[in-house]
Design a protein that fits this description.
Number of strands: 10
Helix content: 25-40%
Oligomer: single chain
Distance between the termini: 99 Å
Structural class: alpha+beta
Strand content: 15-25%
Order of helices and strands: HHEEEEEEEEEHHE
Radius of gyration: 28 Å
């Protein structure tokens, strides 16, 4: 037996699944918008708290006042090979930092010049820093954000072998120069000559060339846990 439907009934049967599909799409759209707004809210919250987190990390680490007197407002983003990033006090090994960073970013004005300093205030130890500071790297006359085009006043040296398992802070600082400058310091090559690199002062260097306060900062720490060894008799 064949069953026939009126035109109106057929139209209703056709429209009904379309209504379901439309309602499903609308629900998905609303859910997506809600999730997106939540993410924006969370991101805004993180951005808002970032300066406070920076200040707390710098305060706990003692970088202020051991090296600088004020809390910089910006993060100096530093990345080594294999995506090893400097992250406000994270542990990094000698091999992580053997070669100089591959990526550095910071807020910069295209027509300004900047100076980048990497320094260790814990030489020979944080408890007795008689050789504070040990200069690891100094770039000057950096044009804008083009850090690879800066002049290398002190060639890069990472964590020294005899400090590999000691607790040292390795601090990166960025300064805005008053212009392109002529520096009178001796240019240091990659040799780790102690007498030429220790007893450096970031404060005095910045003051000598009228840098003002540092614009950005970041730091890592050498491996904090000394691995115990068992002697075999």
């Amino acid at each position: 037996m064949e069953v026939y439907f009126k035109d109106s009934e057929l139209r209703n049967e056709i429209k009904h699944p379309l209504k379901k599909i439309s309602f499903f799409n609308e629900a998905c759209f609303i859910t997506a918008i809600t999730f997106f707004c939540h993410c924006i809210k969370e991101s805004a919250s993180e951005i808002k708290l970032e300066p406070m987190k920076m200040k707390n990390d710098l305060n706990r680490s003692g970088i202020v006042p051991d090296i600088i007197d004020v809390f910089p407002e910006n993060v100096l983003q530093i990345e080594y090979e294999n995506h090893k990033e400097v992250a406000f006090g994270n542990d990094m090994s000698r091999w992580d930092t053997f070669d100089r960073p591959v990526k550095i970013s910071y807020p910069a004005e295209p027509d300004a010049y900047y100076a980048l300093i990497m320094t260790d205030p814990d030489c020979p130890s944080r408890e007795i820093p008689t050789h504070r500071e040990w200069q690891h790297w100094i770039l000057v006359n950096i044009p804008g954000a083009n850090w690879t085009q800066g002049f290398c006043l002190t060639e890069y040296i990472g964590i020294l072998g005899y400090y590999e398992h000691a607790i040292h802070r390795y601090v990166f600082l960025l300064y805005k120069q008053p212009g392109k400058l002529k520096f009178t310091e001796r240019v240091l090559d990659p040799r780790p000559v102690e007498m030429l690199r220790y007893k450096f002062s970031t404060r005095n260097f910045a003051k000598k060339y009228n840098f003002g306060d540092p614009l950005a900062v970041n730091f890592f720490m050498s491996e904090a846990v000394l691995k115990s060894t068992t002697a075999v008799v």
